[in-house]
Amino acid sequence: MTTAMDMVNKINPEKEARNLKVKVIRLWTVPTFTGQLLPNSMEMILVDESGWKIQAIVQKTMIYRFKQLLFEGRVYVMKLFSVVPNQGSYRATRHQFKLIFQFRTIVRDAICDFIPKSALTISPFTELLETKEDSNFLVVLFLCDL
């Protein structure tokens, strides 16, 4: 029997049990600002087969559990995590919520040819210039020689 997968754009805190099939399109660690050797968190951008993206966070106390399981560019089935509002000045996606991995979170390798290899959201430069200091998304500029 095949388990139904939830779509990223339908994620909200009201439903606890979710099954996501997603690709990790970006994975990074956030250092502590106190000079400790251990990172503060491990964070990632996940994308589903429809191209919807959401940020996911592995907090400091859970990094040991997921560090060897998660790799950029790989597809996984994930379930059992917390869903919280995506607030503050550090938002890596436009999704209203973000995922927090828990000790009970399950991550399994999967195969899916339908998930995009990259899922950049391209915004016109004029839109970036019009944003206020507290914009709703992370801006990364790519400069190239023309």
UniProtKB/TrEMBL annotation:
Matches recorded under InterPro entries: NA-bd_OB-fold, RFA1B/D_OB_1st
One Pfam family cited in the UniProt record for this chain: DUF223
Protein's recorded name: Replication protein A 70 kDa DNA-binding subunit B/D first OB fold domain-containing protein
Occurrences of domain Replication protein A 70 kDa DNA-binding subunit B/D first OB fold (ranges): 6-109
Species of provenance: Arachis hypogaea (Peanut)
